[in-house]
Every structure is written in structure tokens, then in C-alpha cells.
Amino acid sequence: MTMLQSRPWSPPPVVRPESEPPAPERTDIRPGSAQDLEAMTTFLSGLSAETLYKRFLTGLGQVMPPGLPRQLLVPGATGGSLLAVRGAAVIGHAMWAPVPTADDPSGASTVEIALVVADDHQGQGLGSRLVDALVDDVSGHGFAHVHAVVSAENHVVRRMITRRVSDARYGRDGALITVTADARSLAPRRSWPRGASTAR
Ligand SMILES: CC(C)(COP(=O)(O)OP(=O)(O)OC[C@H]1O[C@@H](n2cnc3c(N)ncnc32)[C@H](O)[C@@H]1OP(=O)(O)O)[C@@H](O)C(=O)NCCC(=O)NCCS
Q1: Is 150 helix (H, G, I), strand (E, B) or coil?
Q2: DSSP-derived secondary structure letter, 128
Q3: Mean pLDDT of all residues in the chain?
Q4: Confidence band, pLDDT 50/70/90 cuts, at residue 15
Q5: Is there an atom of ligand 1 within 6 Å of 144 CB?
Q6: Which atom of ligand 1 is nearest the CA belonging to 189?
Q7: What is the 8-class DSSP label of residue 4?
Q8: What is the rounded CA–CA span in Å between residue 186 and residue 1?
Q9: What is its EC number (predicted)?
């Protein structure tokens, strides 16, 4: 006669797949340089006509102007650039460079800023991260004024400005708006003013 021995029950071993699925790649923001030329060229080539127009305020045509990627990465002797990178790919770019204006013809005290995010990555908070990093970068360089030129119908970027600048001065030139602010008034994103329109 065979005796069945009662043994304490233990759960079956958990079988794990050979390798876990990769975590989604994270997006880093870092300074751009001439080393990023190839990735920057690929990034610019992939932008839609609408995004290119909003960024450069003109049609760029079928062929990318030679030298544009380099100029955006290294904007002059005193300017700077930031890249949003995921893996080896550039998915966003921001830059600042001194610029002459009517109030400051020498361009010694005014810095122009601009940014662009890849179409597939827009509306996910990346532009906000880039602009906050840009504000940090610029504030260390002692410029008195910050200046941006945007399309009047670009409500996304106008909203971004309103939320970070308390003393913006606006000028209108046809379809374009120039926004100038005291560099010291730049701050991290503010809450949307109570009662203001949130139409985008
Ligand atoms: C402007 C731009 C850089 C913003 O980057 P983004 O990653 O899309 O922006 P975010 O997701 O960080 O959103 C920024 C704000 O706009 C709002 N927003 C973003 N996309 C929006 C959309 N399609 N409709 C309405 N609101 C939108 C966000 O809710 C956020 O508002 P909040 O600050 O109140 O939270 C990007 O849309 C872009 O590259 N546009 C084309 C180039 C351009 O216009 N450059 C600016 C001129 S230099």
C-alpha cells in the first residue's frame, strides 16, 4: 500500500519572459552643438510645412537652405541652442541669439528666442520643458530684453508667452506679432489668469 504524503502547497514558479519589454525612452534636454548636425538636419527635414512656417515665418521651399542646421545649432558667437533628444533623435530645438531691434539697434541688450517641436511630439509638454530650459539658459547671460516674433494666429505660443512673462509689450506687423519683455520678468509658467479666455 502506497502512502500519499501530504506536503505543504507552494505556488507555481512565476515564468518571466526572456527579456522585459524596454521602458519607453526618455526625452532629455541638453545643449546643441555642431556635433548634432546630422540629427538636426533629419529633424528639420521631417517637420511639416505648417510647423516650418510657424517656426520660420516663411516657406522654406523644397530644399533646406544650406547652413541652416548649423546656424540653428550654433547661433553666432554669443547665442546658444538646446535640443530635446530621445535616443539618437532630435525631437525639439530651442535657441537664443542677440538681435538688433528698433529700441536696441546694436543688439547688445536684446536676445531673440525661438523653438520648435517635432509634429508627432507636439502637445505633450515638450515645448514647455524646452522654453523653461531656454529661460534658465538666457537668464544667465545678462541680456536686458527678450524678444520673439510669432505668427498672430499662433495661439499655442502666445499662450506660452503669456504664462511666463508679466510685462510683455506687443507690436503688430501684418500677420506677425513681436513680443518684447524685460528679461527679469521671465519666470516659470504662471497659472492662467482667472477669468481669462482659455481658447486656444
Ligand atoms: C509652439 C510649440 C513649440 C509648443 O510645443 P508643444 O510641445 O506643442 O507645447 P506643450 O505641449 O508644452 O504645450 C504648451 C502649451 O500649449 C498648449 N497646447 C499645446 N498644443 C496645443 C494645441 N494643439 N491646442 C491648444 N493648446 C495647445 C498646452 O496645453 C500648453 O498649455 P499650458 O502651458 O497652459 O499647459 C510647438 O507647438 C511647435 O513646434 N509649433 C510650431 C513652431 C512654432 O510655432 N514655434 C514658435 C515660434 S518661434
Answers
A1: strand
A2: H
A3: 85
A4: low
A5: no
A6: 33
A7: P
A8: 88
A9: 2.3.-.-
Q: How many CA atoms lie within 13 A of 185 on its CB side?
A: 16
Going by CATH, does the domain composed of 27-185 fall within 3.40.630.30? yes
What is the sign, positive or negative, of the torsion defined by CA atoms of 153, 128, 164, 82? Answer: negative
User: Which atom of ligand 1 is nearest to 198's Cα?
Assistant: 34
Q: What is the residue with the minimal CA distance to atom 19 of ligand 1?
A: 123
Do 179 and 169 meet the contact criterion of CB atoms below 8 Å apart? yes
Give the helix/strand (H/E) hosting 158: helix 155-162
- 28: cell is 532629455
CA of residue 68 to ligand 1 center, whole Å: 23
**Model's pTM, two decimal places?**
0.85
Q: Which of 155, 120, 95 is nearest to 27 (CA)?
A: 120
The confidence score (pLDDT) of residue 90 equals 98
Ligand 1, atom 44: closest residue by C-alpha: 54
C-beta 101 within 6 A of ligand 1: no
Q: Are strands 176-182 and 110-117 parallel, antiparallel or unpaired?
A: unpaired
For residue 134 and ligand 1, the question of a CB distance below 6 A is answered with no
